[in-house]
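I am still learning, so would you mind making up any protein sequence you like and the C-alpha cells describing how it folds?
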Amino acid sequence: MLSPTGSKARGGAIVGLWRQQATQNGGKWGRYKFQILRCTTLAAFNSNRGVTVRFIAPGPPILTIVLTLAFLSAPASAQRPFSEELQTWLLNQGYGDALRVQQVNVFGDGNPANGTEDNRIDMSSPEWNSNGRWPWNMGAGTIHCDGKMRGSAMIVDTREFAAAGTGLILATSAHVLYDLHRQRRFGACQFHYMALDHLPGYRANIDFKRSRMGDFDPSSVSNSPLFGKGDWAFLYVSGPIPGISDTGNVRLRSFHSTLNATNGPVRYQFIAYSPATDSIVISTQCEVRESASGDLGGGSWRGQLLDNCDSEGGASGGGLVATAAGNHYLVGIRSGAHWDSESFPQRQFPNGPPDGARWDVNKNTNFSRAIDGELIDALRSLLMENNGVARIDPIL
C-alpha cells in the first residue's frame, strides 16, 4: 500500500513523496515515487501536457524514482524555462546527474481544453482480459541493462518454427540494448516479466551469445527517416524460469501477410511499459499505416509502420499486435516517434509534441519496425543454432 510520507512546496510546484517498501533477497528494497501535483511554470507554451521523467540511482538499495509532471495552462507571463525549480530540488536531493526526460506520445484531437484522450488500460482495468486480449496480454515485460530500465519486450511463440526448447525468445528493438551516448552495447541485460522488477522470481538474464539482432548502428541519427530498419532483436533467456510463464507468448506474422490473409477487418493494439503506472499497459485503439513517400517516414524503407498507439518513454521494443479472424499476431516492434520540427519547433516544444496532439503522419506519429520475411528468417536461423533443428515450412 502506498502512503504519503511527506511533501514539499517549491516555486509553485507541490511535490508529494510516496514510499513503498518490500523485501528482496532478505534485504530492504525501496521504491520512491515523486508526483508533481500542480505546476504552472515548467513549459513555454499554453497547453495541457504530461511529461514523465525517470531516473535510477544504482547501488544498494536499488532506488527507482518516477516523476510525472502535469502541466496546466498558464498565462505566458507566468511561464518559465523547463523545470528550473524541479532541477534545483533534485540537485538538493543528490540526483541531478541522473535526470533524463523521455518523450511522451499520447495522441488526441488536438484540443487541450477537453483533456487528453488516452486509450490505454492496465491490469487493474476490467477490460484487461476482454476483447480478445488473452493470453497475449500476459506475454510482455521490460528490458533492464546495467541496472536501469531500457525498454519493453514480448515473449514470442516459436512452436511454428522449431520444437519447444527450454528457454524463451523475446522480441524487442535493438536500440534499447545500447548506450547511445557511448555508442556501444550494454554489458548485462535482464528481462523482467510484466515489469515485476521487485520480485526476484520474475526476472531472467539475457544470453547475448544465443540472441540475434538487426544491423542497428548506435551512431546513426535517430531522427532520420532511415532510422529503424535494423532496429530489432530476438533475445534468448534460458529456462525454465520461476515466475515467468510463456502462456502469453504471441505468434509472429508478416504485417503484409496479415493484411492479405483475411477479407475482414484487422484490429491493432500495442502493449508496452508505462512509467506513469509503472506497469505493462495496452493501447487499445490503434491506427497503422505503412510509411509512403511524402509522410514523415518518407517511405524510405519497406516495413516502416506509422501508428497512433498511445505510449510513453520505455515503450521502445513493445509489441504491435494484430487481431485478424480471431487470431492474434505480433506484426511490429516499436522503434520511436517522428514529428515535424516546423509544426513543433524545438524552442517551443523542447520535449516534442504535447499530449493530446493530433496524430498526423505528416506532422506527428510513432513508428515501428514491421515483422517481415527477413525477421522471420532470422528467428528461424537463430532457433536452428540454439536447438539444432528448425521447421522449414514458409511462414510469411
User: Anything to note?
Assistant: The first strand starts at residue 3 and ends at 10. The chain has two domains: 3-102, 108-396. The helical segments are 84-93, 255-260, 373-387.
